[in-house]
Amino acid sequence: MFARVLAPIPFAIAVFVGAAMAGPLTSVAQAAPATAQKEVVRQYTLSTGMADGKMVYLDAQGKASNPVLKANVGDTVVLTIGSGEGAQHDIVIPDLKVASKKFDSSTGSVTVRFKASKPGRFTYYCSIPGHQQIGMEGVLEVAATSASPAAAAPASKAAVAAAAGPALALAPAAADAVSITMDPNSVPPAIGKRAPTLVKYRIDTVELNGKLDDGTTFNYWTFGSKVPGPMLRVKQGDTVEMTLANHKSSKMVHSIDLHSVTGGHGGGADTQVAPGQEKTIRFKALNPGLYVYHCATPSVPHHISAGMYGLILVEPEEGLPPVDREYYVMQGDLYTGRAAGTKGHHEYSPERASDELPSFYTFNGAVGSLTKEFKMTAKVGETVRVYFGVGGPNKVSSFHVIGEIFDKVYSEGSVSSVKKDVQTTLVAPGGATIVDFKVNYPGSYILVDHALSRVGKGLAGILEVTGERDVAVYEPVSPTQTVAHQH
């Protein structure tokens, strides 16, 4: 699916034989020389890379994915492994109590040496969250000898979990955590009438500790250090030159798939960028509308959940009708090993993501982003437009503003047709919509997903509207007023 990013490393299997040693003398006569057990060293050199859309271990030629490693009981196995694409990895074989140090482009290759102590088929894999699930898993076959014990049956998942011991204590919140919330006011200005042109964008992918909630942090993966990434705005017919640069401090490969792109997996096929590198694509904005972009590097759900999504608006030739206020809001579902409200530094949970059980739901990346950190405001009589998208990776949004009715909905991000007078609109993961409404009464209007249990996991925003009250639009009625009206 994706181009390989490989750095071939010589591959060798060497067998070294120790010298035979003579046996001891007895008191009667010299015994026949006895041969000590020969030491056999099996040496493997591997690299990591990508093949057929998966992240894998590779042989030196970059052809064999997750090669089968072989040894006999009693052999010494030496594994030397480096990061072919620059991302962070390790290699572990839990059943043999083998674990390498983590390595990436900055550390160079690492070597792990161990004894093949028992026969069987043992799984080797990368323990970085999500990497085993997206392909980094192979087999070490250890053959029995006449003196070796019977092969052990593979351990059950329950046994492996029990052997791992109790869950690690939650680390304290990261002291270096910063705000990753995208300001909802960060909407590029309308383009207006002009001929198609070349538009250039450059986005840096950055991994950083961010503030998820009060006293809670998370290692976000981002476009431009914010969640969502920057909103892009171009015109139908424009040629867009997109450069994606992966920061040198990154531990992961990143990419960009823009749903507005025709061909090349939306750009994902040609923007798999290793740490410290950059790649550029060009595409023509053929179709108008509001489109999601996101990272398309395995594990895609991990990259998206960790914050790698955004919106690109392709204005139609005639533009969109003008409004007084424009806002940029995206919803995401985030999976950690701890429940919402648990203070400390949370880690991504591939198991919860696979089961589609989010720990948090967020607008613009964090709990309280649109209720505490940033304000959305308007005045009575103004028209408000919200560019709304769902990064996901998994959950549909039932987008609703409590106390308002959408005058216009550009459903599914299509600007070719408009729905009117809509209360709640469905937005799919990887989908978007545009909603317009005129505010006719002051107050606090709450942005929600009308799957309302999600509010308790962080999903709420506030639009503050100021101005004169119009009792013809809305009026709280006291009991005395009700009685007077009845008479």
Describe the overall structure.
Helices cover 5% and strands 37% of the residues. It has a six-stranded mixed beta sheet with strand order 20-18-22-27-24-25. It has a five-stranded mixed beta sheet with strand order 15-13-10-11-19, with no helix packed on it. A five-stranded mixed beta sheet has the order 21-29-28-23-26, with no helix packed on it. The longest helix has 8 residues. The protein has two domains: 123 residues, Cupredoxins -  blue copper proteins (Immunoglobulin-like); 269 residues, Immunoglobulin-like. It is elongated. A hairpin with a 4-residue loop joins strand 5 and strand 6. The protein is built from four helices and 29 strands. With 487 residues, it is mainly β.
For the biggest β-sheet, the strand order reads: 20-18-22-27-24-25
Q: Low-confidence spans: pLDDT under 50, at least 5 residues?
A: 1-32, 156-166
What is the architecture of the largest domain at the second tier of CATH? Answer: Sandwich
Find the count of extended strands (DSSP E, 2+ residues).
Answer: 29
Q: And the CATH topology of the largest domain?
A: Immunoglobulin-like
Distance between the termini: 75 Å
Average of pLDDT? 89
- From the spread of the alpha carbons, the general shape counts as elongated
SS summary, helix count: 4
Strand content: 35-45%
The gyration radius over C-alpha positions equals 29 Å
- Per CATH, the superfamily of the largest domain is Cupredoxins -  blue copper proteins
Helix content: under 10%
CATH class descriptor of the largest domain: Mainly Beta
Biggest sheet character? 6 strands, mixed
How many domains? The number is 2
Alpha-beta content class: mainly beta
